[in-house]
Structure of Lipoprotein:
Amino acid sequence: MKSLNKKVSKVVSALVVAAALVGCDSGGGSNGAGLALAALGGAGYEATVIINGKLTQTGTFAKANCVGQFPANFNSSPSYAKPLYVKLTSSKIVSGGTDFTVACASAGGNNDAADFNITTRINDSSATIKGEVFSVPDTTACTGNPNPCDSASNYTELVGTFDLAVNVDVADPTSVSQITFSNETGVVDPDVAASSAGLVITGTFDGATLASDVTVITSVKGVYSNPNATVGENKCDSIGNPEIVTGSITSNKTLGAYTLLRGTVTVSNGATITVPAGAVIYGERGSALFFIGANLVTNGTAANPVCFTSAQARGSRFPGDWGGLTFIGSGNNTRTASALTEGTSPQSYPLSSGTSSVTLNYTIVEFAGTEVAPGDELNSYSMYALNNGNFNYVQSHRGLDDSYEWWGGGRGANATDVGTAASPNLTGTGGATERTFKGKFLLGTGGMDDDFDMDEGFSGALKYIVAVKYPKICGGTPSTDPGGMEMDGVDGTTKTPSATAGDEPSNPFVDQYTLLGVNETASYAERHREGMKGLFLHGVAYAFKQIIKCESAATSGTGYGDSTSIIDGLVSDSNPDQVQTCTLTTATGTRDTSLASAPVASISTTQSNCGFLGFKPDLKTNVAGKTTWGGAPDTGTTLYDFDGTTVVTPTGGNSWYSGWAVWRAR
């Protein structure tokens, strides 16, 4: 498994999430649809166990901030900080059971040695598992690229052992007694050179500390449990008798309560698909829904949202199960020649004729993003040269690639003037209200890559948007550079577009946004590159390795222009910025980089528990002096439409996501 890149906490936690599979009653119907929704896998007991723990010592690890990372031969770069390798073995383990660890003390020192994060499957409700902790001998130099200590084969020095007992209790799935540690032996670093003063840790594993504060969730195959479910989760997890839809649709169609997508389904010829409130659309593996010069209208409500979800069994749905929604229009795009979309059945864009129009209301797309080939994944929502879009209360959840990605579109006849931070253009020519793609109250949650990806001339308007990353323990493999917002001005083939309004670089209007990361390796809150423009107002960001990453022409590469986005303030933590050619202003308040915790009322329990255990987030901004900022301003703040004067009153008030959005990781 890949190494973790996270801060070391002072408690031990273990998270057990079993892959819950429903039985054969999950499908229904006599047309074969039930087979697509039936349980997967063979007979027999199986629980998936995700353990997030810590090897804790009675001594003190005094080396601060990873300087002199132990053993002494390790490179000081955090990207190589893999001092230990944990391996679990048992006759009851079906698969998995290994992980690298990261050790990094605070400036004052602490008694933390290393985190470990292990996913394993067991074939019994109770299992005693042997844990072994390995290090690299000092004779192996952990330097170079590729680094030899990225390979488990070099971890040959056994430095400690422990026993881990798992006893699954489906009647009490949150009982901490399901996980116990015992028989800890050994020392973490028995042979560190004496010259590495302060680096030696003495003493054996402290069993009392190691086994305390354990967080546990359990379920088993055949049992699905999601306490305190939202109406959205209940809707997405509901099982009905679906109509199978496949092939090409060329005339108007209204979907029923349940629909199953099989293969790549295309809608064209100006046809309109209408989805009633509360409808559920299941996507089989390999399926996707393409609108090519066609239209989609969803009529979800806060009490009865529309859900596009995986056809896999409840509890066994994962990022990338199906393809998601793709829209292709004839709007603005920086390409001088047509290109191909991503997916198993790539389509040409922009269209030479015909338009696509999309109106989404209270709509959820989850577990989408099928990977066709390395670097070629569909997204939850893919918009190619889509001018006509109106998204209201929309969520992408647990997508394998991007939550929302735009390749051009949204500009209309003239949308070049976004104004300034001090005087944003809301209603004038080319301003926010004239943008032909508008999205407000949007969520991107638990995705594996970027949440809001704006490319190739996208110039729509977005307001009240929230991105939430989930940690690796929740499953799935994040990309090499996951971001909250990734933005490219032009495409890589044209690079320098013409000066006409229809071909100019991306120039969106983005107001009121919240970006919440988990400090994943190489992550960033917002990246502006390749001639990116736009106005970004009232943002808050937290827990990305880099906050603002704005690239000049020289950084983006030959042929690109400078990125000249205007970023107003942006409250964040103190992780670094790289603001080269963007304008960072403080028109609405002093730039604040002192956040020591997430800038919302609550999110950490949802993230750390992967949306299970009944924990639902409170995303309202809680930053002193900036409570009116972010994607969900605090209670008492009036919410306005894009014109800045029309009041909007969502169901749930400023907690506009509450009740209808989904949070469970699978």
